[in-house]
Write a structure and sequence with these properties.
It contains six helices and 14 strands. By secondary structure, it is an alpha/beta fold. It has a single domain (2-208), classed as Rossmann fold (3-Layer(aba) Sandwich), CATH 3.40.50.2020. Helix 2 crosses helix 3 (74-85). The termini are close together. The relative contact order is 0.19.
């Protein structure tokens, strides 16, 4: 599978890159024809900082007090907070970085010691990938429970342009992936043609099916 890997560079910053593998992949919510590898952005300091600079432009005029990091985006979230706190309306703000916990009932929760970072705060939700918006929807429900105010949604890659009436700002979109497809398992054309699934994918990576 790895020999199909293609490198895609951001049109705004050539130092920000993702890897994509064409094929037939299954997520928890849908089937897609690309696996999008964002490991370098999520783990490398140089690329994470470059990506944060790109995303920060989208929120420079919005008040941000907390960034909720999902799907392993904590490194990117920290650099995004630094960029936002360095200039504009958020200059000098001590922006908090938090990640919710998943409980036994598969619900997102915040413990007592971190709830104060959400309650009444202006919050940006940061995800690695938004393909159907279900992860964002679950996070927004959690945010409402803890009385957080959703001020923005950011993603490395997003197949959707808005969620809950708020624009999803992303570095990469389906325009960067030729003939990108995202559909339910029941509507998957590759499944209907008998094309086997190459791998199961989620925010951690992929597991090939032999």
């Amino acid at each position: 599978m790895e020999n199909r890997l293609q490198e895609i560079k951001s049109s705004k910053n050539r130092n920000v890159k993702i890897g994509v593998i064409p094929g037939h992949f299954a997520t928890n919510h849908s089937h897609v024809n690309y696996y999008v590898d964002m490991t370098s952005i999520k783990t490398g300091t140089h690329m994470a900082r470059a990506a944060a600079e790109e995303l920060a432009v989208c929120f420079s005029s919005k008040q941000v007090e907390t960034i909720i990091c999902l799907e392993g985006t904590e490194v990117l979230g920290a650099y995004l907070a630094m960029e936002l706190a360095g200039s504009g309306i958020n200059r000098g703000t001590d922006i908090k970085i938090v990640t919710p916990e998943l409980n036994a009932n598969n619900q997102l929760i915040f413990r007592d010691n971190t709830q104060k970072m959400i309650w009444g705060k202006q919050v940006v939700v940061l995800v690695a990938s938004a393909s159907t918006g279900k992860t964002i929807a679950r996070t927004v429900d959690c945010l409402k429970y803890y009385n957080g105010q959703l001020t923005g949604i950011a993603a490395i890659f997003s197949a959707i342009t808005e969620a809950h009436g708020i624009r999803v700002d992303s570095i990469f979109s389906p325009d960067d992936l030729p003939n990108y497809e995202n559909c339910s398992a029941e509507q998957c054309k590759m499944c209907q043609k008998g094309v086997r699934v190459d791998a199961l994918i989620n925010s951690y990576g992929y597991s090939k099916l032999v």
